[in-house]
Amino acid sequence: MAKPARETAASTPTAQPSLHELGRRLREVEAQGLTRALRPIGPANGPRVTIGGRPCLLMASNDYLGLNQHPRLAEAALEAALTQGAGSGASRLISGTLDAHARLEKEIAAFKSAEAALFMATGYMTNLSVITGLAGPGDLIVSDRLNHASIIDACRLSRAQVKIYAHGDADEAGRRLRENQGGIKLLVTDGVFSMDGDLAPLPELLQAAQANGALLVVDDAHGTGVYGKRGRGTLEHFGLTPAPELVMVGTFSKALGGLGGFCAASRPVIDMLVNRARPFLYSTAPPPAQIAAALAGLALVDEEPHLRQRLHALCGRLREGIGRLGLRVISSQGPIVPVLVGEARQALALAQALLERGVYAPAIRPPTVPEGTSRLRLTVTAAHAPQDIDQALEALAGAVREAGL
Ligand SMILES: Cc1ncc(COP(=O)(O)O)c(C=O)c1O
What is the pLDDT of residue 15? Predict the structure, then answer.
Protein backbone atom coordinates (compact mmCIF):
# COMPACT_ATOMS: atom_id res chain seq x y z
CA MET A 1 0.00 0.00 0.00
CA ALA A 2 1.37 3.42 -0.94
CA LYS A 3 2.41 5.54 2.03
CA PRO A 4 0.41 8.75 2.49
CA ALA A 5 2.34 11.77 1.12
CA ARG A 6 4.10 13.67 3.90
CA GLU A 7 2.50 16.98 4.69
CA THR A 8 4.72 19.89 3.75
CA ALA A 9 5.24 22.81 6.11
CA ALA A 10 3.21 25.07 3.79
CA SER A 11 0.21 22.75 3.87
CA THR A 12 0.19 22.30 7.65
CA PRO A 13 -2.20 24.78 9.22
CA THR A 14 -0.27 24.96 12.47
CA ALA A 15 3.15 25.43 10.81
CA GLN A 16 2.04 28.16 8.35
CA PRO A 17 -1.15 29.67 9.72
CA SER A 18 -0.93 32.82 7.59
CA LEU A 19 -0.34 30.95 4.31
CA HIS A 20 -3.13 28.54 5.25
CA GLU A 21 -5.47 31.47 5.87
CA LEU A 22 -4.49 33.06 2.54
CA GLY A 23 -5.39 29.81 0.81
CA ARG A 24 -8.74 29.74 2.58
CA ARG A 25 -9.48 33.34 1.56
CA LEU A 26 -8.54 32.64 -2.06
CA ARG A 27 -10.91 29.66 -2.14
CA GLU A 28 -13.64 31.94 -0.82
CA VAL A 29 -13.00 34.40 -3.69
CA GLU A 30 -13.12 31.48 -6.13
CA ALA A 31 -16.43 30.23 -4.72
CA GLN A 32 -17.92 33.66 -5.45
CA GLY A 33 -16.76 33.52 -9.09
CA LEU A 34 -14.45 36.47 -8.45
CA THR A 35 -11.00 34.94 -9.00
CA ARG A 36 -8.69 37.15 -11.04
CA ALA A 37 -5.72 35.94 -13.03
CA LEU A 38 -3.12 37.74 -15.11
CA ARG A 39 -3.49 37.12 -18.83
CA PRO A 40 -0.28 37.61 -20.85
CA ILE A 41 -0.91 39.33 -24.20
CA GLY A 42 1.49 38.65 -27.07
CA PRO A 43 3.07 41.19 -29.37
CA ALA A 44 0.58 43.62 -30.80
CA ASN A 45 0.01 44.59 -34.39
CA GLY A 46 -2.42 47.45 -33.93
CA PRO A 47 -5.38 45.96 -32.07
CA ARG A 48 -4.44 42.41 -33.16
CA VAL A 49 -2.71 40.49 -30.36
CA THR A 50 -1.99 36.91 -29.35
CA ILE A 51 -3.67 35.49 -26.24
CA GLY A 52 -2.89 31.94 -25.15
CA GLY A 53 -1.17 31.39 -28.51
CA ARG A 54 -4.30 32.42 -30.47
CA PRO A 55 -4.69 35.55 -32.60
CA CYS A 56 -7.24 37.88 -31.10
CA LEU A 57 -8.89 41.24 -31.68
CA LEU A 58 -8.27 43.41 -28.63
CA MET A 59 -11.33 45.38 -27.47
CA ALA A 60 -9.88 46.13 -24.04
CA SER A 61 -7.16 48.75 -24.32
CA ASN A 62 -7.39 52.32 -23.03
CA ASP A 63 -4.92 53.42 -25.73
CA TYR A 64 -7.81 55.43 -27.20
CA LEU A 65 -5.89 57.29 -29.90
CA GLY A 66 -3.74 54.28 -30.80
CA LEU A 67 -0.58 56.23 -29.92
CA ASN A 68 1.01 53.41 -27.96
CA GLN A 69 2.41 52.07 -31.23
CA HIS A 70 3.06 55.41 -32.90
CA PRO A 71 6.70 55.52 -34.07
CA ARG A 72 7.13 59.07 -32.73
CA LEU A 73 6.71 57.88 -29.12
CA ALA A 74 9.05 54.90 -29.47
CA GLU A 75 11.71 56.94 -31.30
CA ALA A 76 11.56 59.73 -28.72
CA ALA A 77 11.88 57.25 -25.84
CA LEU A 78 14.78 55.44 -27.49
CA GLU A 79 16.68 58.62 -28.26
CA ALA A 80 16.17 59.92 -24.70
CA ALA A 81 17.37 56.67 -23.12
CA LEU A 82 20.42 56.52 -25.39
CA THR A 83 21.45 60.12 -24.80
CA GLN A 84 20.33 60.72 -21.19
CA GLY A 85 20.35 57.29 -19.57
CA ALA A 86 17.79 54.76 -18.40
CA GLY A 87 17.05 56.18 -14.95
CA SER A 88 16.80 59.50 -13.16
CA GLY A 89 18.89 58.60 -10.11
CA ALA A 90 16.89 60.16 -7.30
CA SER A 91 13.57 61.61 -6.22
CA ARG A 92 12.58 64.97 -7.66
CA LEU A 93 13.68 67.02 -4.62
CA ILE A 94 17.09 65.35 -4.30
CA SER A 95 18.72 65.37 -7.74
CA GLY A 96 16.00 63.77 -9.91
CA THR A 97 14.52 66.92 -11.45
CA LEU A 98 15.91 66.95 -14.98
CA ASP A 99 15.59 69.75 -17.54
CA ALA A 100 13.23 67.41 -19.37
CA HIS A 101 10.81 67.32 -16.39
CA ALA A 102 10.65 71.09 -16.36
CA ARG A 103 10.03 71.20 -20.11
CA LEU A 104 7.28 68.59 -19.94
CA GLU A 105 5.59 70.35 -17.02
CA LYS A 106 5.56 73.60 -18.98
CA GLU A 107 3.94 71.79 -21.92
CA ILE A 108 1.34 70.12 -19.67
CA ALA A 109 0.43 73.47 -18.09
CA ALA A 110 0.02 75.03 -21.56
CA PHE A 111 -2.01 72.03 -22.80
CA LYS A 112 -4.43 72.34 -19.87
CA SER A 113 -4.32 76.19 -19.78
CA ALA A 114 -3.13 76.06 -16.17
CA GLU A 115 -0.64 78.14 -14.22
CA ALA A 116 1.63 75.20 -13.40
CA ALA A 117 1.90 71.41 -13.58
CA LEU A 118 3.64 68.44 -12.00
CA PHE A 119 4.50 65.14 -13.70
CA MET A 120 4.60 61.82 -11.82
CA ALA A 121 5.32 58.15 -12.48
CA THR A 122 1.67 57.06 -12.82
CA GLY A 123 -1.87 58.38 -12.66
CA TYR A 124 -2.51 56.28 -9.55
CA MET A 125 0.40 57.96 -7.82
CA THR A 126 -0.86 61.36 -8.97
CA ASN A 127 -4.23 60.86 -7.27
CA LEU A 128 -2.48 59.71 -4.09
CA SER A 129 -0.19 62.75 -4.24
CA VAL A 130 -2.85 65.33 -5.05
CA ILE A 131 -5.43 64.25 -2.51
CA THR A 132 -3.05 63.53 0.38
CA GLY A 133 -0.95 66.57 -0.50
CA LEU A 134 -3.92 68.95 -0.36
CA ALA A 135 -6.13 67.50 2.40
CA GLY A 136 -5.38 66.04 5.81
CA PRO A 137 -6.87 65.72 9.29
CA GLY A 138 -9.45 68.47 9.90
CA ASP A 139 -10.17 68.85 6.16
CA LEU A 140 -13.11 67.53 4.11
CA ILE A 141 -13.17 65.45 0.92
CA VAL A 142 -16.47 65.00 -0.91
CA SER A 143 -16.19 62.18 -3.42
CA ASP A 144 -18.45 60.53 -6.07
CA ARG A 145 -19.54 57.00 -5.15
CA LEU A 146 -18.10 55.59 -8.39
CA ASN A 147 -14.73 57.35 -8.31
CA HIS A 148 -11.66 55.36 -9.32
CA ALA A 149 -9.90 53.10 -6.79
CA SER A 150 -6.89 55.43 -6.70
CA ILE A 151 -9.14 58.25 -5.46
CA ILE A 152 -10.73 55.98 -2.85
CA ASP A 153 -7.29 54.87 -1.64
CA ALA A 154 -6.06 58.47 -1.58
CA CYS A 155 -9.06 59.57 0.50
CA ARG A 156 -8.33 56.83 3.05
CA LEU A 157 -4.65 57.71 3.18
CA SER A 158 -5.33 61.43 3.66
CA ARG A 159 -7.02 60.99 7.08
CA ALA A 160 -9.36 63.83 6.12
CA GLN A 161 -13.09 63.43 6.72
CA VAL A 162 -14.57 61.76 3.62
CA LYS A 163 -18.19 62.10 2.50
CA ILE A 164 -19.51 60.11 -0.45
CA TYR A 165 -22.28 61.47 -2.69
CA ALA A 166 -24.58 59.53 -5.02
CA HIS A 167 -23.07 59.05 -8.46
CA GLY A 168 -23.21 62.26 -10.51
CA ASP A 169 -25.40 64.08 -7.98
CA ALA A 170 -24.03 67.65 -7.87
CA ASP A 171 -26.83 68.82 -5.52
CA GLU A 172 -25.86 66.24 -2.92
CA ALA A 173 -22.18 67.12 -3.41
CA GLY A 174 -23.04 70.77 -2.61
CA ARG A 175 -25.02 69.77 0.48
CA ARG A 176 -22.14 67.63 1.74
CA LEU A 177 -19.72 70.52 1.25
CA ARG A 178 -21.98 72.83 3.27
CA GLU A 179 -22.07 70.44 6.23
CA ASN A 180 -18.52 71.41 7.29
CA GLN A 181 -17.06 74.79 8.11
CA GLY A 182 -13.40 75.70 7.94
CA GLY A 183 -10.42 73.70 6.73
CA ILE A 184 -9.70 72.76 3.14
CA LYS A 185 -12.55 71.27 1.12
CA LEU A 186 -11.97 69.07 -1.91
CA LEU A 187 -14.74 67.97 -4.25
CA VAL A 188 -13.33 65.03 -6.21
CA THR A 189 -14.66 63.34 -9.33
CA ASP A 190 -13.57 61.31 -12.31
CA GLY A 191 -14.13 63.30 -15.54
CA VAL A 192 -15.08 60.07 -17.34
CA PHE A 193 -15.99 57.15 -15.07
CA SER A 194 -13.66 54.33 -15.96
CA MET A 195 -16.05 51.39 -15.65
CA ASP A 196 -19.28 53.11 -16.72
CA GLY A 197 -17.92 55.45 -19.39
CA ASP A 198 -20.29 58.29 -18.46
CA LEU A 199 -19.21 61.89 -17.82
CA ALA A 200 -19.39 63.78 -14.52
CA PRO A 201 -21.72 66.83 -14.51
CA LEU A 202 -18.73 69.18 -14.40
CA PRO A 203 -20.52 72.55 -14.82
CA GLU A 204 -22.76 71.79 -11.83
CA LEU A 205 -19.90 70.37 -9.76
CA LEU A 206 -17.74 73.41 -10.46
CA GLN A 207 -20.59 75.65 -9.35
CA ALA A 208 -21.02 73.59 -6.16
CA ALA A 209 -17.29 73.83 -5.43
CA GLN A 210 -17.13 77.57 -6.08
CA ALA A 211 -20.25 78.30 -4.02
CA ASN A 212 -18.77 76.42 -1.06
CA GLY A 213 -15.15 77.51 -1.09
CA ALA A 214 -13.89 74.13 -2.30
CA LEU A 215 -11.35 73.02 -4.87
CA LEU A 216 -12.73 70.76 -7.63
CA VAL A 217 -10.36 67.89 -8.43
CA VAL A 218 -11.20 66.33 -11.81
CA ASP A 219 -9.39 63.10 -12.65
CA ASP A 220 -9.60 63.15 -16.43
CA ALA A 221 -7.61 59.95 -16.97
CA HIS A 222 -10.09 58.78 -19.62
CA GLY A 223 -11.05 62.21 -20.95
CA THR A 224 -7.71 63.76 -21.89
CA GLY A 225 -7.02 63.38 -25.61
CA VAL A 226 -10.52 62.00 -26.19
CA TYR A 227 -13.06 64.72 -25.32
CA GLY A 228 -13.26 68.36 -26.39
CA LYS A 229 -12.63 69.79 -29.84
CA ARG A 230 -8.89 70.03 -29.14
CA GLY A 231 -8.69 66.92 -26.99
CA ARG A 232 -8.18 68.86 -23.77
CA GLY A 233 -10.68 66.64 -22.00
CA THR A 234 -14.08 66.77 -20.35
CA LEU A 235 -13.76 70.37 -19.15
CA GLU A 236 -13.33 71.47 -22.76
CA HIS A 237 -16.21 69.18 -23.76
CA PHE A 238 -18.48 71.14 -21.39
CA GLY A 239 -17.08 74.49 -22.56
CA LEU A 240 -15.51 75.24 -19.16
CA THR A 241 -12.44 77.42 -19.01
CA PRO A 242 -9.90 76.62 -16.31
CA ALA A 243 -10.78 78.41 -13.06
CA PRO A 244 -8.41 78.87 -10.10
CA GLU A 245 -10.49 76.34 -8.11
CA LEU A 246 -9.80 73.58 -10.66
CA VAL A 247 -7.24 70.88 -10.00
CA MET A 248 -6.85 68.87 -13.20
CA VAL A 249 -5.44 65.35 -12.93
CA GLY A 250 -4.62 63.21 -15.94
CA THR A 251 -2.54 60.31 -17.14
CA PHE A 252 -0.27 59.63 -20.09
CA SER A 253 -1.09 55.92 -19.92
CA LYS A 254 -4.35 55.98 -21.87
CA ALA A 255 -5.09 58.20 -24.90
CA LEU A 256 -1.57 59.67 -24.77
CA GLY A 257 -0.02 56.25 -25.40
CA GLY A 258 2.74 56.24 -22.75
CA LEU A 259 2.97 56.15 -18.98
CA GLY A 260 2.84 58.76 -16.22
CA GLY A 261 0.40 61.01 -14.41
CA PHE A 262 0.10 64.75 -14.07
CA CYS A 263 -1.61 67.48 -12.13
CA ALA A 264 -2.24 70.89 -13.73
CA ALA A 265 -3.52 73.64 -11.43
CA SER A 266 -2.93 77.05 -9.96
CA ARG A 267 0.54 77.79 -8.53
CA PRO A 268 -0.30 77.38 -4.80
CA VAL A 269 -1.71 73.91 -5.49
CA ILE A 270 1.44 72.77 -7.29
CA ASP A 271 3.71 74.38 -4.67
CA MET A 272 1.81 72.55 -1.94
CA LEU A 273 2.29 69.22 -3.72
CA VAL A 274 6.04 69.85 -4.04
CA ASN A 275 6.13 70.46 -0.29
CA ARG A 276 3.71 67.90 1.06
CA ALA A 277 2.78 65.12 -1.39
CA ARG A 278 4.56 62.10 0.03
CA PRO A 279 4.04 59.69 -2.90
CA PHE A 280 5.63 62.33 -5.15
CA LEU A 281 8.39 63.24 -2.70
CA TYR A 282 9.56 59.78 -1.68
CA SER A 283 9.79 58.03 -5.02
CA THR A 284 12.46 58.17 -7.75
CA ALA A 285 11.62 60.58 -10.56
CA PRO A 286 10.32 59.24 -13.90
CA PRO A 287 13.21 58.60 -16.33
CA PRO A 288 14.05 60.44 -19.60
CA ALA A 289 12.46 57.84 -21.92
CA GLN A 290 9.12 58.16 -20.11
CA ILE A 291 9.27 61.96 -20.30
CA ALA A 292 10.17 61.94 -24.00
CA ALA A 293 7.27 59.61 -24.86
CA ALA A 294 4.93 61.85 -22.85
CA LEU A 295 6.06 64.95 -24.75
CA ALA A 296 5.54 63.17 -28.08
CA GLY A 297 2.06 61.96 -27.06
CA LEU A 298 1.02 65.45 -26.01
CA ALA A 299 2.22 66.96 -29.30
CA LEU A 300 0.34 64.34 -31.35
CA VAL A 301 -3.00 65.26 -29.77
CA ASP A 302 -2.67 68.58 -31.62
CA GLU A 303 -0.91 67.32 -34.72
CA GLU A 304 -3.26 64.42 -35.47
CA PRO A 305 -6.82 65.55 -34.62
CA HIS A 306 -8.16 63.11 -37.22
CA LEU A 307 -7.40 60.29 -34.74
CA ARG A 308 -9.98 61.69 -32.31
CA GLN A 309 -12.57 62.10 -35.10
CA ARG A 310 -11.95 58.55 -36.28
CA LEU A 311 -12.24 57.25 -32.69
CA HIS A 312 -15.65 58.84 -32.17
CA ALA A 313 -16.96 57.54 -35.50
CA LEU A 314 -15.89 54.01 -34.52
CA CYS A 315 -17.52 54.40 -31.09
CA GLY A 316 -20.80 55.30 -32.82
CA ARG A 317 -20.54 52.22 -35.05
CA LEU A 318 -20.01 49.87 -32.07
CA ARG A 319 -22.72 51.46 -29.94
CA GLU A 320 -25.31 51.32 -32.75
CA GLY A 321 -24.46 47.67 -33.43
CA ILE A 322 -24.79 46.71 -29.77
CA GLY A 323 -28.12 48.55 -29.63
CA ARG A 324 -29.32 46.40 -32.54
CA LEU A 325 -28.41 43.28 -30.53
CA GLY A 326 -30.80 44.48 -27.82
CA LEU A 327 -28.07 44.74 -25.16
CA ARG A 328 -27.93 47.49 -22.55
CA VAL A 329 -24.90 49.78 -22.67
CA ILE A 330 -24.42 51.74 -19.45
CA SER A 331 -23.15 55.00 -21.01
CA SER A 332 -24.34 56.86 -24.07
CA GLN A 333 -21.11 58.08 -25.68
CA GLY A 334 -17.37 57.59 -25.95
CA PRO A 335 -14.90 54.72 -26.25
CA ILE A 336 -15.75 52.92 -22.98
CA VAL A 337 -18.66 50.67 -23.92
CA PRO A 338 -19.82 48.66 -20.88
CA VAL A 339 -22.48 46.04 -21.64
CA LEU A 340 -24.46 45.38 -18.46
CA VAL A 341 -24.80 41.69 -17.60
CA GLY A 342 -25.57 41.52 -13.86
CA GLU A 343 -24.10 38.47 -12.16
CA ALA A 344 -20.35 37.91 -12.09
CA ARG A 345 -20.50 34.35 -13.45
CA GLN A 346 -22.68 35.40 -16.40
CA ALA A 347 -20.27 38.22 -17.26
CA LEU A 348 -17.39 35.72 -17.15
CA ALA A 349 -19.29 33.29 -19.38
CA LEU A 350 -19.95 36.05 -21.91
CA ALA A 351 -16.30 37.17 -21.94
CA GLN A 352 -15.19 33.54 -22.38
CA ALA A 353 -17.64 32.93 -25.24
CA LEU A 354 -16.37 36.11 -26.91
CA LEU A 355 -12.76 35.05 -26.48
CA GLU A 356 -13.54 31.70 -28.08
CA ARG A 357 -14.71 33.73 -31.09
CA GLY A 358 -11.37 35.56 -31.27
CA VAL A 359 -12.31 38.83 -29.51
CA TYR A 360 -11.01 39.85 -26.10
CA ALA A 361 -12.92 42.16 -23.76
CA PRO A 362 -12.81 41.65 -19.99
CA ALA A 363 -15.63 40.84 -17.60
CA ILE A 364 -15.62 43.51 -14.88
CA ARG A 365 -16.87 42.23 -11.55
CA PRO A 366 -17.06 43.30 -7.89
CA PRO A 367 -15.20 44.76 -6.09
CA THR A 368 -14.32 46.90 -9.15
CA VAL A 369 -18.06 47.54 -9.74
CA PRO A 370 -21.04 47.25 -7.35
CA GLU A 371 -22.63 43.85 -6.70
CA GLY A 372 -25.15 42.85 -9.39
CA THR A 373 -23.68 45.17 -12.05
CA SER A 374 -21.00 42.92 -13.55
CA ARG A 375 -20.41 43.79 -17.13
CA LEU A 376 -18.44 43.23 -20.29
CA ARG A 377 -16.24 46.28 -20.85
CA LEU A 378 -15.42 46.88 -24.50
CA THR A 379 -13.18 49.75 -25.53
CA VAL A 380 -12.62 51.29 -28.94
CA THR A 381 -9.39 52.87 -30.16
CA ALA A 382 -8.43 54.82 -33.27
CA ALA A 383 -6.24 51.86 -34.22
CA HIS A 384 -9.36 49.79 -34.95
CA ALA A 385 -10.70 49.59 -38.49
CA PRO A 386 -14.46 49.65 -39.18
CA GLN A 387 -14.15 45.96 -40.09
CA ASP A 388 -12.73 45.27 -36.60
CA ILE A 389 -15.85 46.76 -35.05
CA ASP A 390 -18.03 44.61 -37.32
CA GLN A 391 -16.01 41.54 -36.34
CA ALA A 392 -16.48 42.37 -32.64
CA LEU A 393 -20.23 42.77 -33.16
CA GLU A 394 -20.57 39.46 -34.97
CA ALA A 395 -18.60 37.69 -32.23
CA LEU A 396 -20.69 39.41 -29.55
CA ALA A 397 -23.95 38.26 -31.19
CA GLY A 398 -22.70 34.65 -31.10
CA ALA A 399 -21.37 34.95 -27.56
CA VAL A 400 -24.67 36.36 -26.27
CA ARG A 401 -26.54 33.40 -27.81
CA GLU A 402 -24.10 30.90 -26.30
CA ALA A 403 -24.18 32.53 -22.86
CA GLY A 404 -27.99 32.47 -23.00
CA LEU A 405 -28.41 36.20 -22.32
C1 LIG B 1 -10.01 57.24 -13.52
C2 LIG B 1 -8.62 56.72 -13.38
N3 LIG B 1 -7.73 57.44 -12.66
C4 LIG B 1 -6.47 57.02 -12.51
C5 LIG B 1 -6.03 55.85 -13.07
C6 LIG B 1 -4.61 55.44 -12.84
O7 LIG B 1 -3.82 55.85 -13.91
P8 LIG B 1 -2.47 55.08 -14.25
O9 LIG B 1 -2.84 53.83 -14.98
O10 LIG B 1 -1.69 56.05 -15.08
O11 LIG B 1 -1.81 54.77 -12.95
C12 LIG B 1 -6.93 55.07 -13.82
C13 LIG B 1 -6.58 53.80 -14.47
O14 LIG B 1 -5.62 53.21 -14.56
C15 LIG B 1 -8.25 55.51 -13.97
O16 LIG B 1 -9.13 54.80 -14.66
Answer: 76
Distance separating alpha carbons of residues 16 and 32, to the nearest angstrom: 25
pLDDT in the model for residue 8? 57
Nearest CA owner, ligand 1 atom 9: 123
- Considering all CA atoms of the chain, what is the largest pairwise distance in Å, rounded to the nearest integer? 81
129 within ligand 1 shell (Cβ under 6 A):
no
Ligand 1 centroid to residue 69 C-alpha, Å: 20
- Would you say the CB of residue 253 lies under 6 angstroms from ligand 1? yes
Q: Is the CB of 126 under 6 A from ligand 1?
A: no
Angstrom distance (rounded) from CA 156 to CA 367: 17
Say how many Å lie between the CA of residue 221 and the centre of ligand 1: 6
Q: What is the mean pLDDT of residues 92-102?
A: 97
Distance (Å) of CA 233 to CA 12, 224, 237? 54, 4, 6
Q: Are 401 and 355 in contact (CB under 8 A)?
A: no
Q: Determine the pLDDT at residue 1.
A: 43
Q: What is the pLDDT of residues 195-243, one digit of tens each?
A: 999 999 999 999 999 999 999 999 999 999 999 999 999 999 999 998 9
Map out the domains of the chain with their CATH numbers.
37-65+305-403 (3.90.1150.10), 69-303 (3.40.640.10)
Residue 253 has a pLDDT of 98
Q: What are the distances in angstroms from CA 120 to CA 178, 259, 285, 337, 402?
A: 32, 9, 7, 28, 45
**pLDDT (average), residues 81-109:** 97
Residue 194 annotated in active site: yes
Mean pLDDT of the residues in the chain: 95
Ranges of H-type helices in 55-138: 71-84, 99-111, 123-134
**Per-residue buried b or exposed e for 19-37, using 16+ beta carbons within 10 Å of the residue's own CB:** eeeeeeeeeeeeeebbeee
Quick check: CB of 194 below 6 Å from ligand 1?
yes
C-alpha pair distances (Å), 180 with each of 163, 214, 347: 10, 11, 41
CA distance 169 to 179: 16
Task: Report the candidate in 360, 394, 262, 387 with the shortest Cα–Cα distance to residue 52.
Answer: 360
- Tell me which amino acid residue 60 is: A
Query: What is the model's pLDDT at position 204?
Result: 98
Instruction: Identify the residue whose C-alpha is closest to ligand 1 atom 7.
Output: 123
